[in-house]
Design goal:
Blueprint (H helix, E strand, L loop, with lengths): L2 H7 L12 H15 L8 H15 L4 H9 L4 H11 L10 H20 L4 E5 L6 H13 L8 E7 L2 H9 L1 E3 L8 H7 E4 L2 E4 L1 H4 L2 E5 L12 E6 L8 H14 E9 L10 E5 L2 E4 L5
Parallel strand pairs: 1-2, 1-7, 2-6, 7-8
Antiparallel strand pairs: 3-5, 4-5, 8-10, 9-10
Helix pairs in contact: 2-4, 3-5, 6-7
Length: 287
């Protein structure tokens, strides 16, 4: 780096309460990519400052340079996780992208339910579950077709990199406005109201195991999945990381399984073919 470039890298790039330089941004972007696979574009400078300035105020840290030293240190694991939680996006809602749930109900679930009733194992995975709306939407769709699903070998794994949202998902408590997309019949059968809050019933929660999991880290699961939801996640990854995720999904997807992804995402892997709008199956699997 030239002397001029070095000087520029130490100049503030955001006007605010804390010094925030290009070097600070690059250090944070590097750590985030290493920890989660998420790529921070230069256009995200203001967003990074806004979200992490709150962490500096809360922790009493005086500058972003000091903050970077902490999250890069051996003792900084807790704050690294707090940084990751602050910078990841958790936009979600019940029955988001409704065509996916129509496809589940009409195409994917009927043969799986038939198989489950003969004693076969059925596994579903919400791989970026956020605050729980997605896995509960999947479970509600399943239960609307198979109310006794918990009596069979049918289970849904729900994971997210952020332990804070996993805790919220486990609780299964939502505001009246949050549950508006849930059809009334499902809501009245599978949720209970307490004041202005609604809680997902134990019968639904019994189907789901919530855990923290990093998609670019180790996956402890050993069996195959019949359904994988990974929506609006890999859009934040660079192409190399996306390819890695698709390969790993391919290796754990059952032969007739389906992968559901976000509306802005595509699987660019010849092992997969389209089975609908942002829905994929393995090449050679039955349509």
């Amino acid at each position: 780096m030239s002397a001029t470039a070095a000087i520029r890298s130490e100049e503030p790039i955001v006007q605010g309460d804390f010094p925030f330089t290009q070097r600070d941004f690059r250090r944070i972007a590097s750590i985030l990519r290493e920890e989660s696979g998420i790529h921070l574009a230069e256009a995200k400078v203001a967003l990074v400052y806004s979200r992490l300035a709150k962490r500096l105020r809360k922790t009493g840290i005086a500058s972003f340079a000091e903050y970077c030293d902490i999250i890069e240190s051996r003792d900084g694991a807790e704050e690294r996780m707090a940084m990751l939680a602050a910078l990841t996006t958790n936009v979600t809602r019940f029955f988001r992208e409704p065509h996916h749930f129509d496809h589940l109900r009409e195409r994917t679930l009927p043969p799986l339910i038939a198989a489950a009733r003969t004693g076969k194992r059925v596994r579903l995975w919400s791989s970026a579950c956020s605050t729980g709306e997605e896995p509960y939407s999947i479970a509600l769709t399943l239960l609307s077709m198979m109310p006794d699903a918990a009596q069979y070998d049918v289970r849904l794994l729900a994971t997210d990199i952020d332990p804070n949202v996993v805790t919220t998902a486990k609780a299964g408590v939502y505001s009246s406005s949050a549950i508006e997309p849930i059809p009334a019949a499902m809501r009245d059968r599978w949720l209970s109201r307490s004041g202005d809050k609604w809680r997902v019933n134990d019968e639904v929660r019994a189907l789901i195991a919530f855990n923290t999991l990093n998609l670019i880290g180790d996956w402890p699961m050993r069996g195959r999945f019949d359904i994988i939801f990974c929506r609006n996640v890999v859009i934040y990854f660079e192409s190399e990381t996306q390819d890695l995720i698709w390969t790993r999904f391919r290796n754990i997807l059952s032969p007739e399984g389906r992968v559901y992804i976000g509306h802005s995402e595509r699987i660019d892997d010849n092992a997969f073919v389209s089975d609908g709008l942002t829905i994929y199956r393995l090449n050679g699997a039955r349509a």
